[in-house]
Specification:
The structure holds 3 protein chains of 3 kinds.
Chain A lengths: L12 E12 L8 E12 L3 E5 L6 H8 L7 E6 L2 E2 L6 H7 E4 L12 H11 L4 H14 L15 H13 L5 E5 L7 H16 L3 E5 L3 H4 L4 E6 L2 E6 L1 H5 L2 H6 L6 H11 L11 H14 L1
Parallel strand pairs in A: 3-8, 3-9, 6-7, 7-8
Antiparallel strand pairs in A: 1-2, 1-4, 4-5, 9-10
Helix pairs in contact in A: 3-4, 3-5, 4-5, 5-6
Chain B lengths: L15 H4 L2 H17 L3 H18 L3 H6 L5 H14 L4 E5 L2 E4 H27 L2 H12 L9 H31 L9 H7 L1 H24 L18 H23 L1
Antiparallel strand pairs in B: 1-2
Chain C lengths: L2 E10 L7 E11 L4 E5 L6 H8 L7 E6 L2 E2 L7 H7 E4 L12 H11 L4 H14 L4 H4 L9 H13 L5 E5 L7 H18 L2 E5 L3 H7 L2 E6 L2 E6 L1 H5 L2 H6 L6 H12 L10 H11 L7
The chains are: A alpha/beta, B mainly alpha, C alpha/beta.
């Protein structure tokens, strides 16, 4: 419904974070715990950004601030040019930047798949026939249309997570923030969910993916590493994973291909710096073998 | 183990009964249950059985499924029947030691037993043919006129929806925790009452913590999906009172009329 | 402690319409003091199998013989089985319940009927073994700790029972890379110090390849493959056919081999990949 128009300051960015700080006050603790510390970040419309970092580095807090589930202590967060502290825009912000959480069980509201997907659009006050269309379309988009009348607790983790994604897609968001969506899934579930995420991105939805899996991060256009509430590194996967020593210092795992590339370079095998995907390594090895 | 329990048993289908407006089904079920208390004789029960049988036939819910609903209350029915059979004074048919079976007892036992069975089948037909979610929607709609006097109709319905959704999850969680503690040598099965109550702590504490975690996660997920209470909210399944419902309502009224006339006028 | 599993069969919801054979005539031999990996999909029967190992589930038929004793027998005391075999479930931190870390870790040993001093010594030892500082954490509430710490406390709770076989069901699920490494290191340490047998269930083929002496592959309730990691992961087609991956190093070399047939085989870890590739390229002579 009210897809209000506003004049975003820079038309190509969907999210802009300016000097944002977020503090938790823990019970009993005198000092506040700074979860996010003076972070500035801009996310381009249509991009696929992976955010990695150890537990407690502030990734999740940052994500929740974009969805206005949390409000910054200082600094600003803009979604589509709307300030997240502007209460009049709250629902538009949440509709624009949807969120999928880690635990596949704890985010589904209804005991019937299609009713759960309808939950968001219902909250937005959309007309019933339009909700029906959106629900069917979103369930098809995540390959769960056949399961639409099932009960979530009978489905696998990967399937539940895809329903959660459909529930957000049905709200027609421009951006989806995924907070470790695959952490609790088995390899099959992870693969299913990653396929859907990549497809949504190809269809124009901006993706913010918080993850601990490096093989997921290398699939993004941009990788942001958070450490201790700040942005430690920010760049394309090729740039980020070229600094394997820095990554290790930040307690990150280096993707297998990058690790091997480093080792081979130490043995005078000139693996190009941009080698981060397994396919690139295969190509290089075969080509190099044919040359020597 | 605990996971095998199914709640809000619903038998999926597309029959007319399944498609009736849940509001009508809820109110109609109540009227049907009340009318059973107006029945005075077996002819009346014959009519009620016929009416219910017709509904079951239309609903296409297998009889085995219907009777499954009687299983958990079988003991209560048996008890009612036996008590009525032997405790009613009157003309004895059989007599053995201090137990006597009277004609009146037999009659009463059959009467009470039949009424109980009809009550249970009548109400289980509602849950068997109505999705739990439609049921809560119906209750919400039925209660909404009372919002003016402070009855939180939407909130109550939402609570029921969430309970339906999370009972299986919590049962599964309880099962897992129980096994984990048993692996650590916990004993849930022996000891006196106090010991047994105490032995539940390792199960209940983690279960409560899980429930709180679920509540917290869910609240956040609901908020992220723009949930802001019942106002301005639309529903995908709009409830419309159609000609089908009108016909069903007329049938119900006719049934009640027949019962009243048969039992109280004739 | 060795375990022999003979013809183990388990059926869920027997005689009901949704009856499923969860374990189908499983035969396995777990050697004393070995490190065993179990892989397979969710629903392949792994969890059902490990729940049989300490008597949480009773088989329909078959035997589990631990050190000569059939633990599926009706006269076996469960306490004896649990003394021998410790089970760490998935997300074990969700089973913490006591007010303090010390009390929680003591729960298992106390259930074994040990004396108070004995229990305290074991708690101290177990917490140290999982890399936690006893004096710092013993009196704190387990619920105040970080996710990784909670998991260590939960694992310590099982280690403190000093099981001769320690079974862990995906002990690294949901952790960040650092905690993941720490937990694996912890398991290695426990294996070395306690000289016990480890059974590790994991979806991470890299971890399984790097740690296990013996790997068991389950699919649809059956044990379809077993052997050393090298033997098991050589069955590329079979593993891929059932949708299980290979360790990344094996996957890479497999793909290389499809294009250059003379590429090295039998590569499981990144170290091996490095050595083999260097040798393949003839670079090793230079060094």
């Amino acid at each position: 419904m009210n897809q209000g128009f506003s004049a975003p300051e820079a038309p190509d960015e969907i999210i802009r974070i300016e000097h944002m700080t977020y503090e938790y006050k823990r019970e009993g603790d005198q000092a506040a715990y700074v979860a996010v510390n003076d972070v500035s970040l801009s996310i381009e419309r249509g991009s696929f950004v992976a955010i990695i970092g150890r537990n407690g580095s502030g990734k999740s807090t940052l994500a929740k601030c974009i969805n206005a589930l949390l409000l910054p202590a200082s600094g600003k967060v803009y979604v589509n040019g709307w300030d997240t502290t502007d209460e009049a825009r709250l629902w538009q912000i949440r509709q624009t930047a949807g969120m999928v959480f880690q635990n596949p069980d704890n985010q589904l509201v209804s005991s019937i798949v299609e009713d759960d997907v309808a939950f968001g659009p219902e909250n937005l006050g959309i007309d019933p026939p339009e909700i029906r269309r959106r629900v069917d379309r979103s369930l098809s988009a995540v390959n769960m249309f056949e399961e639409r009348t099932k009960a979530p607790h009978l489905l696998s983790g990967g399937q539940k997570q895809r329903i959660a994604i459909a529930g957000v897609v049905a709200m027609k968001p421009e951006c989806i923030i995924f907070d470790e969506p695959t952490a609790m899934l088995d390899p099959n579930g992870r693969a299913e969910v990653m396929k859907i995420i990549e497809r949504l991105n190809r269809e124009g939805i901006t993706i913010l993916l918080i993850t601990h899996f490096m093989d997921e991060a290398v699939r993004a256009d941009r990788v942001v590493i958070m450490d201790d509430g700040r942005i430690a590194m920010d760049g394309t996967p090729e740039m980020i994973f070229a600094h394997s020593d820095e990554l290790r210092r930040l307690d990150m795992t280096v993707p297998f291909t990058v690790d091997l590339a480093d080792r081979l370079r130490r043995n005078d095998i000139p693996v190009p710096q941009s080698t981060i995907h397994i396919q690139e390594m295969v190509d290089f090895l075969c080509q190099y073998k044919s040359e020597i | 183990m605990l996971r095998d329990i199914t709640l809000g048993q619903y038998y999926p289908g597309t029959s007319v009964i399944h498609r009736l407006d849940p509001r009508l089904k809820i109110v109609g079920t109540f009227i049907f249950l009340i009318s059973l208390f107006l029945v005075r004789n077996f002819i009346g029960f014959g009519i009620a059985v016929g009416f219910l049988a017709l509904q079951i036939a239309i609903s296409r819910v297998p009889l085995s499924f219907i009777f499954k609903g009687l299983k958990p209350v079988f003991l209560i029915i048996l008890f009612t029947v036996v008590v009525n059979m032997f405790m009613t004074r009157g003309e004895p048919i059989l007599q053995w030691w201090i137990i006597s079976l009277t004609k009146e007892g037999l009659y009463r036992a059959g009467f009470m037993g039949l009424r109980l069975v009809l009550l249970i089948i009548g109400s289980s037909l509602l849950t068997l043919t109505t999705k739990p979610i439609s049921l809560t929607d119906g209750i919400e709609k039925l209660l909404s006129p009372f919002r003016g006097v402070g009855l939180p109709a939407h909130e109550l319905a939402m609570m029921m929806t969430i309970a339906l959704r999370f009972i299986p999850t919590l049962l599964e969680e309880a099962d897992k925790i129980m096994k984990a503690q048993m692996a650590r040598g916990a004993d849930f099965e022996s000891g006196n009452l106090l010991q047994r109550a105490k032995s539940l702590i390792p199960l209940l504490v983690p279960l409560f913590i899980s429930a709180f975690r679920i509540a917290q996660d869910l609240a956040m997920a609901m908020e992220a999906r723009c949930y802001r209470g019942g106002d301005a909210r639309t529903r995908m399944h709009a409830m419309t009172f159609s000609w089908r419902d009108a016909v069903a309502a007329i049938c119900l009224v006719a049934f009640v009329a027949v019962i009243v006339v048969q039992s109280h006028v004739l | 402690m060795s375990i022999q599993i003979r013809d183990l069969t388990y059926v869920y919801s027997e005689n009901l319409p949704y009856e499923t054979v969860a374990l189908d005539h499983i035969n396995m031999e777990i050697r004393d003091h070995s490190f065993n990996g179990i892989i397979g999909h969710t629903g392949s029967g792994k969890s059902t199998l490990i729940q049989h190992l300490n008597g949480l589930l009773k088989p329909k038929s078959g035997q589990i013989i631990v050190d000569g004793i059939d633990i599926t027998g009706s006269d076996v005391k469960l306490r004896e089985i649990r003394k021998m075999i410790g089970l760490v479930f998935q997300y074990p931190e969700y089973q913490l319940f006591e007010e303090t870390v010390q009390k929680d870790v003591a729960f298992g040993p106390l259930n074994l009927g040990l004396s108070q001093e004995n229990v305290e010594a074991r708690v101290r030892e177990a917490l140290t073994l999982v890399g936690l500082d006893f004096s710092e954490l013993a009196d704190r509430s387990p619920f105040e700790l970080s996710g990784g710490q909670k998991r260590r406390v939960a694992i310590a709770g099982v280690i403190a029972m000093k099981p001769k076989v320690l079974v862990l069901d995906e002990p690294t699920a949901g952790l960040d890379p650092r905690s993941h490494r720490d937990i694996l290191q912890l398991i290695r340490n426990v294996h070395e110090q306690e000289k016990n047998t480890i059974v590790l269930v994991s979806h991470n083929m890299g971890d399984i390849a790097a740690l296990s002496d013996q790997v068991f592959v389950m699919e649809k309730g059956k044990l379809i493959l077993s052997g050393t990691p090298r033997e098991v992961f050589a069955n590329t087609a079979l593993l891929k056919g059932i949708g299980l991956g290979l360790p990344p190093a094996a996957e890479l070399m497999e793909q290389v081999r499809q294009r250059c047939a003379d590429a090295p085989r039998d590569v499981l870890t990144v170290e091996e990949a490095e050595q083999q590739i260097v040798r393949w390229f003839g670079k090793d002579k230079k060094c």
